[in-house]
Amino acid sequence: MPKHIKSTKEKIGMAPGTLIHVGERLSEDVKINLIKYTVDSFTTEILNDFSSIEYSPSETSISWLNVDGLHDIKLIEQLGNKFNIHPLTLEDVLNTTQRPKVDFDDNYIFVVLKMLYYNDELREIHSEQVSLIIFKKYLFSFQEFEGDVFGDLRKRLQQNKSNIRSKGTDYLAYSLLDSIIDSYFDILENIGNNVDEVEDKLLSNPDKAIMPEIYNLKREMILLRNSVWPLREILGSLIKSDNLIVEDKTLMYLRDIYDHTIQVMDIIETYRDILSGMLDTYLSSISNKTNDVMKVLTIFSTIFIPLTFLAGIYGMNFDYMPELRLKYGYIMFWVITLITIIFMINYFKRKKWF
Amino acid sequence: MPKHIKSTKEKIGMAPGTLIHVGERLSEDVKINLIKYTVDSFTTEILNDFSSIEYSPSETSISWLNVDGLHDIKLIEQLGNKFNIHPLTLEDVLNTTQRPKVDFDDNYIFVVLKMLYYNDELREIHSEQVSLIIFKKYLFSFQEFEGDVFGDLRKRLQQNKSNIRSKGTDYLAYSLLDSIIDSYFDILENIGNNVDEVEDKLLSNPDKAIMPEIYNLKREMILLRNSVWPLREILGSLIKSDNLIVEDKTLMYLRDIYDHTIQVMDIIETYRDILSGMLDTYLSSISNKTNDVMKVLTIFSTIFIPLTFLAGIYGMNFDYMPELRLKYGYIMFWVITLITIIFMINYFKRKKWF
Amino acid sequence: MPKHIKSTKEKIGMAPGTLIHVGERLSEDVKINLIKYTVDSFTTEILNDFSSIEYSPSETSISWLNVDGLHDIKLIEQLGNKFNIHPLTLEDVLNTTQRPKVDFDDNYIFVVLKMLYYNDELREIHSEQVSLIIFKKYLFSFQEFEGDVFGDLRKRLQQNKSNIRSKGTDYLAYSLLDSIIDSYFDILENIGNNVDEVEDKLLSNPDKAIMPEIYNLKREMILLRNSVWPLREILGSLIKSDNLIVEDKTLMYLRDIYDHTIQVMDIIETYRDILSGMLDTYLSSISNKTNDVMKVLTIFSTIFIPLTFLAGIYGMNFDYMPELRLKYGYIMFWVITLITIIFMINYFKRKKWF
Amino acid sequence: MPKHIKSTKEKIGMAPGTLIHVGERLSEDVKINLIKYTVDSFTTEILNDFSSIEYSPSETSISWLNVDGLHDIKLIEQLGNKFNIHPLTLEDVLNTTQRPKVDFDDNYIFVVLKMLYYNDELREIHSEQVSLIIFKKYLFSFQEFEGDVFGDLRKRLQQNKSNIRSKGTDYLAYSLLDSIIDSYFDILENIGNNVDEVEDKLLSNPDKAIMPEIYNLKREMILLRNSVWPLREILGSLIKSDNLIVEDKTLMYLRDIYDHTIQVMDIIETYRDILSGMLDTYLSSISNKTNDVMKVLTIFSTIFIPLTFLAGIYGMNFDYMPELRLKYGYIMFWVITLITIIFMINYFKRKKWF
Amino acid sequence: MPKHIKSTKEKIGMAPGTLIHVGERLSEDVKINLIKYTVDSFTTEILNDFSSIEYSPSETSISWLNVDGLHDIKLIEQLGNKFNIHPLTLEDVLNTTQRPKVDFDDNYIFVVLKMLYYNDELREIHSEQVSLIIFKKYLFSFQEFEGDVFGDLRKRLQQNKSNIRSKGTDYLAYSLLDSIIDSYFDILENIGNNVDEVEDKLLSNPDKAIMPEIYNLKREMILLRNSVWPLREILGSLIKSDNLIVEDKTLMYLRDIYDHTIQVMDIIETYRDILSGMLDTYLSSISNKTNDVMKVLTIFSTIFIPLTFLAGIYGMNFDYMPELRLKYGYIMFWVITLITIIFMINYFKRKKWF
């Protein structure tokens, strides 16, 4: 789906670390949602910029700043200066064509991944880039558009379910990753239903409309795989890396979503195998149909072409044609005709053409 | 087979470790079967819950608790509290869509795998998740439904065959894994018979019904592979891991079923290769059939179409057509006709169309 | 070739290490052939059982005991007790569906592999399991049936060629492996001749009979690969393992047959690639044939169908048809007919249909 | 695209390190462009040869010498002598058929890679070899022809954007690599547009012209992959190598373009998968078209061939044919004809051939 | 190309290290060419056997002994005894079906590889085995036939180009390998030209003769790959091995030809990909041709079959057929005929069948 591979053309020759937003530009305001919590407290706030936020290493409460919209470059620069974030990191936040990846800095971990939505009408997967910058006490998440899969997580934070507020930004980051990866299963279920549908059609009544559907599903699987495949590496790096932000007790949780990622990959590969099988089945069904059409033509032709020849003979105008004068000539003709037809039908029946 | 990929949709956004049963819910009661044995003793008991079971590190007898049915979440919670099992482990026990895996905790080893049944009528593999939580003296096994492949193992325990009661939970766990992997061979034999059947049809009389059968067998192989493939890793981890539960003398047994797993994978790959070859053969047989049908049509047409034209000529009503007036005109016509037919038949014979 | 994947069904639920013969049961007696030699002596003897054999670590002569037939379980048990062989090893000796493998025990090395025979008439590879139990001074080889590829080796032992009697059981084992792997080249040559034959047919006169032949050859390659592939690992393990039985000076010989195994794999993969190419060629030849048949039909039809229509016109009985009254009407008809035929033939010649 | 694989024929048997230019020979002069800068200064100069350049280890300013044209071997030899460059390195600079690679010498790093241009009219990728010899204070870049993708980089150097002049040759080399890899995205976008175009045609109106287009795009992807694939290794070596030229703070930048390279590979593989899918779709569309053509033929033939036979019957000249004498004979004939036509049309409608 | 896989049948059962020549036996004499040189001296001599050669560790000049012809086993034995060469090495020298490989002995390095020639008329690659036994001061090269690619190397030795005589046997061995690998590029260029030719035919006028050509090229690529692929390992081992013969300063040269080998593999894989694409294109071209043939047939049939039916109607002899009596009946018939033809042609034009 070349349409989904966005260009970074406008960037060629620019200095690395030059901040430029690559992606759809929107006129709406950028929204910053701050959730600040400790075990005992929980506050939520909408900010216009980062002016009220200060990096403080001795901070005790956890702050989650979610940014919807990436077109306000000044805001990102402001953040970069305040939190001493590497220009390449900021560049990657803004470049929404980034491949999912993880980078480790001295003070923070930077994660890029894809949030996916399935448009059931268009039967298309839509992808939105999510970047996380994880400090010990601050977590910044950047999304291209409003709307995400984190609603339940916000509720759990508010209600402090499973004592989530007693845990650090590493657990919060894990929860965000978990929500995103869980949503992949949702998409796979939707696609699975479409695969089921196409399979049913294929086995009952395969027609021309099936090929583009198989093609489409295959393409969606390719795109999905591209988004999911790098996650293995990312989670592997997070688990193996020796950094101060991810605590040991969080590792088990990361391993858990690592397993989920493997499972997503397994399902994707399974669907790809099944779609390949469906393609083979479809191609063989076309060949069989051509075969059937040919048989109908051949049966009719081989029965009637010789008979038409016979009729043609007795339509000739030779002066001397003794059969034409016979009393039972015409009846004989019919007898021969019928015998021929019966013989041919038997022949084709034996050949199992019916 | 998308129908077999169960959704975890209801879980999105939930806190990790939230216990929720994902799978078919049944109204039957959950059954707990306790087998407790030492070298000298063997008792078996049906329990309603885990209230009579207490974790005791100095316990000398081995307890195997088999749970049939996973819909009673309270029971699982009760167990979790008593044996200090990590919430993520309990979550995985209940989520029957889990990919086979192994997790090592301080006190126990957690193994998830698939028990497979072959429904010969539907020609479908049915899968049931089995989870094992292996403590030093306790082994918990969880199944979705009643009925399993452990009948012979229970007998061997009762009769203390090969001195099985003198061995630990690691050997018991090995015996369970061994029973399950042995049953895979059984399934492969069933599928192998179907492959044989389809192959015989294919080589003797390939018809349209073969394609869906090949497709089905391919799909079953994909599903089977998905269940078996992760077993290699699981057994590899068990063999390599340095833990207190698996004793050295059990390693040789684990290596043995590791070899069996490799063998199962080999057979699956062999069948996949064979099925690919069958597909090619089938597709070439359709093409050959079309070819044959075409030949019949062409032979009839090329013989009779020119002759019909000839008959048509002498059916014309031109005033001046000298041949019509000839005494032997009609006989000449037949002579030409027969020569043409003989010539054509020879021509096709030389072309090896008969 | 599912027929070749033997079931281990009867074993499900049995205790591991239970001795049961899996394979074809024969009524003939089991034959034990003992060859005992030192540099200076060579004796050969037929035994009925192992009662006269005693394990003695200080033994100086080398004993090679070759067992033909595996259905006498008592014999195997007797041996197991005398030489302290692990039950799992004995189980593997009897289970002739074993995947080739190597196991290292404290006192012996256990090797399973396949001896292959090519039945040129049926064009089928037959496989027989050979197991070797290699002690420092004793080597046990087990075969399913009488007859093997070790005849020349026995002669060399008797004649002490290349001073073979001065070497240990490791060198003897190497010689056995070498004989078996050399025989694979023989089989590959036979198959290669068949591939040549099919290729010649394919390029000169491809007909329907070729497809099953290609399919068969492919299946044989799959089976052959299954037998040979594990050998790489086995030899790799033997070379790398640090054990007391394989001496350093034998390693070079093992590396030599390791290279041969790689070469066998290379040839197998080459044949598989060539067979794939032959399949493509065959499929394209069917398509070309259909094309040719279609061209014959089309040439005849497009020439004669319009002419038949023309003849039909002048066979009509309209009262007023001026052409019929013309003196040269009939001749005109023939002129038009011949011009049409010449034009059409030219047209098809330009299209290169002839 | 064999045309793109240039021969090194003229080199066989020559001593390694013999300087000979392999590639297109041009009559134009070789141009040397020297850019010399420190944080505070920037000078640019056109040189005729390297006589004015001297290697000085204590040099403080950075010199970038870009050479356009490789046919002046003396110049290269002069450089080799002055800077003590290994003959094999010089040989590789001149051999423009080199596979991208990196070599580490004591004093310099040698990198070969491909600069690619997309000719949108010919829909062809053109490739030009770029070699970099990176000393601590000098960087030599060699191109086959004038014109490159470094224009923006030169501007940034002149304007000292992002303080680029304060960094070493390692950062300069990184900037050159970055420019080249960025240009790959540009090419991928162009190809992506072509893929889109072909896809649109394929889904709306697939005709014969599509196959060569798919074939062409596939070939371009193969060539592109060949140029990009070795870059991973090169960048990996640069990042991992422990040398004095690449400073630690540059590693992050190299990792960044390493990520870009992976992304380019991902996109290439995605396109290859999509092109495979398009091929399948195209092949199925031909089969469907043949099917449709066959249906038209069969419908017409099966309707009219029997009717023509019927008409033929009543064109016979038997003396005794009672139907011909019937008053309503002719009308009956039409009734039968119409009933037959209606019946056949219904039959084909039910078969969904319309 | 099974014809190229030579059997080692005659060897089964022989003792390892038995010297037997496997390959084409020639009646010509074996030729030994001795080139002996130091920096200052160069002598060349033809020997009949090795009697005048003595192994002397303190030797200062370098001796290169090239043996053309392998059928004189005594000569090889003589050499083996004099230089203390392992029997397995001698066996491998004589067995010309050896897979390319490297072996390290205490005193020498043994390398086997293939020298390839391209017969442009037969479009076949011919392969000749070359073995090198490299001592510190002696290098033995064995070829099956006279004639090789080392002519230029001999000249360089004589003229002491690039001071080649001052270097050791390792550099001489490198030069031999370099000559051989350079000649692979030559072969690839020849094959590349054939690929170009077939591609041009394919895109301009694909006919049946193309398929065997593609098949042939594919087979040549398979054989070429088999010869080249093991070279990577060989060179890798030579570079990594810690032996006394290969000096550090030669490593850079070995790395250089290692890179060339990778490049050869790259080109081979590229051609294989291109040939696959050509196969797809060819298959689609057959389908398109069949389609075109079908269209011609269908156009003619659907136009003339209904019209023939119409003519048949008015050729009927019913007593009462009013149209026949009409004055303009015949003209009406022609009007209807022409309208039908025009309508059909329009219909097919709209369907884009022309």
Automatic annotation (TrEMBL), chains A, B, C, D, E:
Pfam families: CorA (PF01544). The chain crosses the membrane at residues 296-316, 328-348. The keyword Lipid metabolism does not apply. The keyword Transport applies. It comes from the Bacteria. SUPFAM superfamilies: CorA soluble domain-like (SSF143865), Magnesium transport protein CorA, transmembrane region (SSF144083). Keywords: Cell membrane, Ion transport, Magnesium, Membrane, Transmembrane, Transmembrane helix, Transport. It is a multi-pass membrane protein. It is found in: Cell membrane; Membrane. Coiled coil: none annotated. One of its GO terms (cellular component) is plasma membrane. Its main location: membrane. GO terms for molecular function: cobalt ion binding; cobalt ion transmembrane transporter activity; magnesium ion binding; magnesium ion transmembrane transporter activity. Mediates influx of magnesium ions. Belongs to the CorA metal ion transporter (MIT) (TC 1.A.35) family. This is Magnesium transport protein CorA.
